[in-house]
Amino acid sequence: MDIKSKNDVWSVIALVIALFSLLYCFSFVLEWVMNSPAADLLSSLRSLTKGEV
Fold it and tell me: How far apart (Å, rounded) are the C-alpha atoms in residues 41 and 19?
């Protein structure tokens, strides 16, 4: 029974590491989407259509 509990502990540790890794990668994806060149292009087009230079 001792081996099973050690495996359970390592499984939980592996899941926590995987979760943090996914969140870390997702933060870069979210930052890229929010600050993408397309967003800059759209904002510049929006300002041009309003007459702001």
Answer: 34
3-state class of 1 per DSSP?
coil
**Tokens representing residue 35 in the block:** 């600050």
pLDDT at position 18, please?
Answer: 96
Spell out the alpha helix ranges (H) of the chain.
Answer: 2-34, 37-49
The whole model's pTM is what? 0.54
One-letter amino acid for residue 44 of the chain: S
| Dist CA 39 CA 50 (whole Å) | 17
Question: How far, in Å, CA of 3 to CA of 24, rounded?
Answer: 32
pLDDT tens for each residue of 7-36: 899 999 999 999 999 999 888 888 777 776
d(CA 40, CA 32) in angstroms, rounded, equals 12
